[in-house]
Amino acid sequence: MAKSLREIRFGCDVLIIGGGTAGCQAALTLGEHPSVSVIVAEKANIKRSGCLAAGVNALNAYIVPGRTPEDYAEYARNDAAGIARDDLLLSAARGFNRAAERLESLGLVILKNRDGSYAARGNRNIRINGENIKPILAGAVSKLENVRVLNRVNIVDCVADGENVFGAVGLGVDEEILYVFEARAVICATGGASGLYRPNSPGFSRHRMWYPPFNTGAGYAMGIRAGAEMTTLEMRFIALRCRDTIAPTGTIAQGVGARQVNSLGEYYEERYGLSTWERLRGAVEESRQGRGPCYLRTRGITPDQEDQLYRAYLNMAPAQTLKWLESGSGPHESDVEIEGTEPYIVGGHTASGYWTDTGRRATLRGLYAAGDVSGGCPQKYVTGAMAEGEIAALSALRQVEGDLTPRASRDVLGSFVENLRFNVESWLGRDRAIFTADDIEEAMQTAMDRGAGGISSGYRYNNAQLAQAGERIEALESLAGDLRAADMREAVRICELKERLLLCRSVIAHLGARKETRWGPFADHADYPKRDDENYLKFVNSRMINGKIEIIYRDIARGREVCEHSNRP
Amino acid sequence: MSIRIDPDACTGCGLCASVCPGSLITLEAPGGRACIRRPGDCWGCASCLKECRSGAISYFLGADIGGDGAIMSVRDEGRALEWIFRRRDGTVLRISVRRDESNAY
Ligand SMILES: Cc1cc2nc3c(=O)[nH]c(=O)nc-3n(C[C@H](O)[C@H](O)[C@H](O)COP(=O)(O)OP(=O)(O)OC[C@H]3O[C@@H](n4cnc5c(N)ncnc54)[C@H](O)[C@@H]3O)c2cc1C
Ligand code: SF4
Ligand code: SF4
Questions:
Q1: Ligand 3 atom at minimal distance to the Cα of residue B9
Q2: Would you state the pLDDT for residue A407?
Q3: Partners of residue B100 in chain A, C-beta under 8 Å
Q4: What is the structure's pLDDT at A404?
Q5: Which residues of chain A have pLDDT under 70?
Q6: What pLDDT does residue A569 have?
Q7: What whole-number distance in Å separates Cα of residue A50 and Cα of residue A20?
Q8: List of E strands, A82-237
Q9: Which domains does chain A have, with CATH numbers?
Q10: What domains can be seen in chain B, in order of their start residue?
Q11: A43, A173, A205: which to substitute to probe chain B, counting the most B Cβ within 10 Å?
């Protein structure tokens, strides 16, 4: 029977898409300006949504005494082998400590030294109990009077006319509702993207991945469709993780000083270097050359250290503690096997995402980006996502208070609403379809795995493989239009699939456009195995024009504190 | 890795369903028992376990990632979270993690 969607409309000054780390901090910032009306649209429930759902281990980005934001920017730029924006790194780094203090004032437990300063873990981290970090942030947001939180609203598209963004359209996750938002400013904070590539354990435990499987790249896709410029999508993030549980390794490595060893018992890290991608390359190369599996050498740690590891993992990746306990052999008896994950697109670790100015304005008027979805600013993590949420919120505030952005003409808004209604009602109305969203998702992950440098190809690809993967993804994009949805959850799943497919297409275009190998496995182009500073010490950016992904190369402006767009449409 | 909901212990309060970041849990009917429709979609974040006041939810590792049939549940004790592990042979182990203590690492 044909189903029809009920339409609900909202108007506000600022719409925040995604109530995760960056979205919550944007809301808290705007909460200090009660005359501005704000809506947070979140596909799950802000209490435990996004990256912070399971808890986190530390605040990875903090300026410890004796260090400066400039030091941090230099570190992050070097780790990215030069492909990062100084203005973005500096402005984020200047906000790290304020974000940490805000979290503490809301109730986050941070380990302190005797003198009251935060206890550092290494040069840039501070130690916390991060189990309840998300409920703490979300609790503060729900107290704000001018901020309305709408949980279980999945945003599908920004309403845009190619130059301006006027709002967004979305779907109820449980109910047959089409949501329409008109807003003067829109902040996109939907996080990064997982699930593009075949995961480590593709069977029952396919979602035991590092990055949340529910961050499907919606924000990238809506920006790409709206014509916003994206940067560095080729810099994939591949994490080095504990085998099977995909739990973080840094806690073990830094916590008990465990080093990596190969199956011959040789310590190999120094041979490869110590940047994020070099550490990964070490484990990948050792295995490739027949010296795998690789481990973190934990054997011999004390029972007390073991107990502390159990606790630390319960606060952020409980699967790992369960694994140790059920195997009957904890880390003081057995080394911990490590492996690389499938690639993710995540601007909080690498530099993939929206191309913005220093104020986190995207290249469309009225659109801002913060957190993992925002590009050019790697290694920003929790505190950097918050810093960007604050920067984006203040930019949006200035826009809202200053000019009166024209509201969408009825035509633009109407066409987005009708288009979404048409698609969803046809999925819901179909009695049967040959394929399911799961089938197409699996086909997409296989195509990316084989042709665009997934786990099975050792993260390496060449032009011929990229072309093949690109063709396959385009074919799957057309199949994704003919699916059937039994209910709204399945309709949302089809939207998620379409987001991932479009992002795959963009990633493939970016991988092909960087004709060099700069960051080892992050973008390992077999036809161009060397780093080429002469031609590629620049950003690879892209925009979708008439349905095609067009590449734009942009120079790296060193040492600039502020960058404005010279590239607005 | 995924979760299992014990229908006899579940009171149908719906808290787990409201917090799951993947909206994976549904109530059979309003006020009815909670169930996870696609257990393989679970991320393993443990949010639902922490939310459940009835101890109805437990957590296990899939056999494909080395799971051996042990299950884990968690009890909110206010100032601490108590994690309870039950091995397949019936042995039980408890670890209590205080909320006001930071990670040692
Ligand atoms: C497992 C894990 C552990 C980590 N550990 C640490 C750590 O110890 N220390 C550290 O500093 N950093 C850590 N990080 C990194 C850090 O957590 C992230 O970089 C940061 O939280 C990203 O914030 P965000 O706001 O961009 O994304 P998120 O916090 O994930 O927020 C995105 C939000 O958008 C919502 N959303 C997505 N799509 C839509 C849509 N279509 N419509 C509506 N809403 C949508 C999501 O549900 C989510 O709530 C970790 C990350 C992960 C994944
Ligand atoms: S563990 Fe997390 S992802 Fe899995 S069902 Fe519970 S809340 Fe959802
Ligand atoms: S939280 Fe526990 S009691 Fe409440 S619905 Fe979920 S499983 Fe049932």
A1: 3
A2: 66
A3: 109, 129
A4: 62
A5: 1-2, 403-408, 566-569
A6: 42
A7: 6
A8: 109-110, 120-121, 125-130, 147-151, 153-160, 165-172, 177-188, 230-231
A9: 240-340 (3.90.700.10), 425-554 (1.20.58.100)
A10: 2-101 (3.30.70.20)
A11: A205
